[in-house]
């Protein structure tokens, strides 16, 4: 059913009683001539949405060759307070001010038109602003994310990660003047977070954590996968620098550390807010450890859900694995790499609890799987084999071997307006129309049941969602 004028027919034999048009769909109701008792019924209709050119979106073109713009992208929230959500785009090998590979990040203000955006224009203050890296070789913008409203001023803030064990929190602002991360490092317009060690890779994964401790300010989570640690930094209104070694020591007021089970698990490779999974009013966290070996399954991967809390005592993921303060999610099979990508899924099934999505790009001969795990209030361990069987969630199976579905996963919000949050999963190595590694992304509509596996081959035909196909060979879109 695609357009106005299409009909929905409810029929019982041959007597036409009424015809009514609602929202462009004509409903024809037939009843048997001997019917004597009326009955109320609800009919749910999924209309295909045919987007006009003006509804389809816009492209953001990079500034210079080899900048790698788009390596990391995120919603930025509403940075400038105009009521439209904004975007942040990382270009981690850009050369601001002649500093080789210092990196840049671009904040693109929300807009209603579909004209292409040139990051060269953003760099001059047209339609947004640029954030220039501090020093050569910093690779700032390797990881970017909305930070929520960290300082409570009503504007959403940003977090920009580098490869030099630093992350920068940039406060929201309404003007378009360029930002220098060297200024942020001195406490002008934000603050810097320094890692324990450069080799810990404490810049690799950064994300808003939601409000973990319930103080009304949004918090941050930073993963350091080489050390097997993740750090929660509480929101604050001042601009004093933070050193993660202080948080790791445990005796502080600024956050807490989450220590992995085994250093080689790569816990903290992916980190995200989980929303409020258990419904206690505090936002929770999800941490991926895609090299973990649950039940001896090498690199099947694990993910850990850490419930929000108000104190700053360190958390051991070994305790989470036993059900203390959260729960563990165990991968299905060796080589799946579950937890490579993790995210809140929003409320996919409409039960009032936030759900989760975990990517496992190595599953199914590299076709990949993504698992949707419904929110729950207990702390029992979850096996993704049970999710695949329809217990506590559902699985999304990749199309073709080598596509790597689950390499990136995220909530998509409520794309189709049915009241359920939807999902987007990336398959960056897919080869649409024979174009090698062009990539695909799939929008999967939310659903209340957990009985049916979702096949991305069905999504590609328009059943239960839609597909976004990359442009050119080697783009790795998704």
Structure description:
The chain is mainly beta and 478 residues long. It has two domains: 1-48, no CATH class; 53-469, Methylamine Dehydrogenase, Chain H, CATH 2.130.10. 6% of the residues lie in helices and 36% in strands. The chain has helices at residues 119-122, 181-184, 244-249, 317-320, 384-388, 456-459; strands at residues 7-10, 15-22, 25-31, 60-61, 69-77, 86-91, 104-108, 117-118, 128-132, 143-148, 157-161, 166-170, 179-180, 190-194, 205-210, 219-224, 229-233, 242-243, 255-259, 270-275, 284-289, 302-306, 315-316, 326-330, 338-346, 355-360, 369-373, 382-383, 393-397, 405-413, 422-427, 440-444, 454-455, 465-469. The protein has a five-stranded mixed sheet. The longest helix is centred in the middle third of the chain and has 6 residues, at 244-249. Mean pLDDT is 88; it is low at 1-17 and 41-51.
